[in-house]
Amino acid sequence: MAASGDGDVDIDGCCGGTLFPEKSFRSWSAYGQALLETGPRLRDRVTTRSMDDTEVNEVRGRSGADMRRTLTWWDLIWFGIGAVIGSGIFVLTGQEAKNAAGPAVVVSYAISGVCAMLAVFCYTEFAVEIPVAGGSFAYLRVELGDFMAFIAAGNILLEYCIGGAAVARSWTSYFATLLNHHPDDFRVHAAALAEGYSQLDPIAVAVTAVICALAVFSTKGSSRFNYVLSILHLAVLVFVVVAGLTKANAANLTADFAPFGARGVFAAAAVLFFAYIGFDAVSTMAEETRNPAKDIPVGLMGAMTLTTIIYCLLALVLCLMQPYTEMDPDAPFSVAFTAVGMDWAKYIVAFGALKGMTSVLLVSAVGQARYLTHIARTHMVPPCLAQVHPRFGTPVYATIVMMVATAVIALFTNLTILSNLLSISTLFIFSLVAIALLVRRYYVSGETAASDRNRLVACLAVIVASSTATAAYWGMTTSGGGGWVVYVVTCAAWLAATAYLQWGVPKARAPKMWGVPLVPWLPSASIFINIFLLGSIDGASFTRFWIWTAALLVYYFFVGLHASYDTAKALAVETEAARVEEGARKPTAANTADGGCRFG
């Protein structure tokens, strides 16, 4: 693929040519010159924000063919349920009840559900206002700029790859249960690899490949398949609740409700947030939704409400059936039914778990490909990944690339490593989206006074700093929460900053179609809870997170920055040329109206 002399970059044909067709990559000398301009280019990308219309029109147009608008709120609810209810409830419930929270794992699910619902509110407003496939990446580009959007984008892609890999490996575990085998019977031990990465899982790779093929062919077809799977899955969940309650023993729940204290409850909530991950994939389908203003709020919030209720019910039933000390960390529901004399029921549970995990993999495949598609539209990654197949109406290349990455991770990495790292990436992204929503409501470039902007920045800084201090102190102390004075100070600072934002800073914009209620309180609470839960995650997972972030920065400074900078400048040239052309046409139109000459 070639670029025109004026710097214009055309996506067509890039898959048959160079991966990066931008001006900075035409030659080694051009690349060297681009590297010398890294500082000014970085300042430009940090301070430049995209526009709603740019994301919805110009950026979306770089995919060639449009995605088909075939989805309704009904499809989105089932996509949401299919995306969320999967391996988390069937695997992590036993693990966290036994090792972190005890029967209070029910409370942990409720805390995670509230955190997820706050994030859903923020995502919904953005998805209605900016209905594109980019999801949170597009939202952050509009409100926080290219640089923050890229850091979030890298973690979004990591979130999806890790989430899909975790579910694929859990699929193998429940498949083994269905066949009366131990999961490791279907895995290959590679002694030369480190612990945690040595149990190779070829079945997870095969399942991922099949899901990829389905996601490539049709979004509506995927929706129908997901609808059928989700119906079967919900039927199994109803069975688990009803059958489990017939074997309930209240003493299992009340004897030692929170054996690990509040610290254990919040630590479990941070990990169990993994079980709610997936709803953001629904926001990426806004571009394929018939009526975003109606369908997205109903679809997203309806799915999350149902999911939270189901999770709390299932956790409660498990804790009533079996003492937390006897729960199996890998297949808790199947083992619990065996323990109460209903061994036959474990096959129904395993079947339902497989259905649920298949749905999660399918929706994840659809969502992650759309994220990558929009990222590629900005040329932060090779633009050929943005192409939409003219026949299938799906982003074929993006789907394949993401599923290959997911399959490689699923082949090597165990669930514990995956779930903790996944929770960090997701909580980080949700915090950024909540910050972006506050920026959207309180700041409009060229309209907001400098004094109001500065007050907004100060309030956001205090909200983030107080939330971080609370989380850090919680994470560093080893007792049930440490001295209460620190929490009083940090929570008071958060409360004061949010209150000042409410009454001391004027709002700059109101949502056009649907908006988050109780702004700034709900977004601010989302920031606080997300960051607080981060303080309950182990240090090793943070080390892996920072290594990944460092790798992202290296890529950005050497590749992504220059590709996106060239593309943005080329788009600016095109936009200016269009304005000039439009301006030249106006006199012609006026002359024509006045009876003057009509130019052909």
UniProtKB/TrEMBL annotation:
Keywords: Amino-acid transport, Membrane, Transmembrane, Transmembrane helix, Transport
UniProt entry tagged with the keyword GTP-binding: no
Membrane topology, as annotated: Multi-pass membrane protein
Family annotation (InterPro entries): AA/rel_permease1 (IPR002293), CAT_C (IPR029485)
Cellular compartments annotated: Membrane
Keyword Zinc on entry: no
Stated family: Belongs to the amino acid-polyamine-organocation (APC) superfamily. Cationic amino acid transporter (CAT) (TC 2.A.3.3) family.
Stated name of the protein: Cationic amino acid transporter 4
Source organism of this protein record: Zea mays (Maize)
Taxonomic path: Eukaryota, Viridiplantae, Streptophyta, Embryophyta, Tracheophyta
